[in-house]
Amino acid sequence: MPSVTEVDPTLPARFPPITVQHILNCQFSEWHKLFASLTLKSKALPLTEDFVDYLNQDGLFLPLDSNGLPQPHYEHPTDSDHNSDGEEDDQEWKKEFEHLNAAGGADESTETSDTEDDQNIPHFPDLETSISSAIEELGGAVFPKLNWSSPKDASWIALSGTLKCTNAADVFLLLKSSDFVMHDLSQAFEHCYVGEGRVEDLPKRPETFELVLRKWYELSPSMEFRCFVRDGRLIGL
Question: Cellular component GO terms, alphabetically (predicted)?
C-alpha cells in the first residue's frame, strides 16, 4: 500500500476544502427545492434586518406581540406553589411601593424607566402574523431553524424541553436563546477555504436569512441517520 507521500497530488481529494459556496449550497432553501417531496412539510419566511439585529442583541427578551403588548408569561402548570409565592411577593412589593410613594420616598423615575424600556422593545407584527399562519398551515405545531441550524441547544429553556412551538413567542424564545443560531448569524463561513485570498475577505454572513418552520413530529433520535453523498453516490452513513 503506498504511503501518503506517494499518492499522486494531482488526484482530487476525497473531501476537498470547504468553500463559501459549499456552505451556501447547504442552506435549507437550496436543497429543499430538490427534495421537498421526500422531507418534512416546511415553510420558509424571509427575515428582515431589524429582526436579525434583534437576535444579535445582548440579553434574553421577547419582542412585543402583534398588538404591541408584552408576550404572555411562561408559567409551568406544575409550579402552582411557586407562582403563589410569587404573587404574594408581588403584593408585598406593591404595598411597599405605595407606602413609599405616599410618604414621598418614591419618585416618577421607576415609572419613566419602565416606559422607556417598553419603547425600546422591538415589535415584529408582520413576522408574528406570518409565523402564526404557517403554524396553523402546518398542523398547529412546528420546530424552527434558520438557514442551516436549529436551536436544539436551547431546548432546555422551553417548557416542553423540546423544539416544539405552537405560537410565535415559542419560536422567538428558542431563536434568541441559541448559540447555534448565533453561529448561523455571524460565523457560518468561519472555517471556509480561501485559497490564495485573505481570511479577512471571507464574508461574515449570507446576504439574507430565512426562518424555516417545519411540521412537528415526535421523532426518535435513535432512528436518525446522517448520510454522506458525493457525485450522486452514498459514500458514508
Answer: cytoplasm
| Partner residues linked to 229 by β-bridges | 234
β partners of residue 211: 45
* Residues 6+ away with beta carbon under 8 Å from 119: none
What does the pLDDT look like over 185-213, one tens digit per residue? 988 888 787 766 666 677 778 889 999 99
Q: Where are the domains of the chain?
A: 17-65+120-236
Residue 69: count of CB within 10 angstroms of its CB: 10
- Cβ pair 83, 75 in contact under 8 A: yes
Q: Which stretches of 138-199 are DSSP H helices?
A: 168-177, 179-186
Residue 143 has, within 13 A of its CA and on its CB side, a CA count of 18
Cell of 185: 448569524
Q: What is the per-residue DSSP string for 19-34? A: -HHHHHHTSHHHHHHH
Q: Which residue has the cell 444579535?
A: 56
Torsion angle defined by CA atoms of residues 100, 102, 104 and 106, in that order, rounded to the nearest 10 degrees? 40
Give how far Cα 23 sits from Cα of 109, 157, 171, 225, 234, Å. 50, 29, 24, 20, 19
Full-model pTM: 0.72
Q: Name residue 45's beta-bridge partners.
A: 211
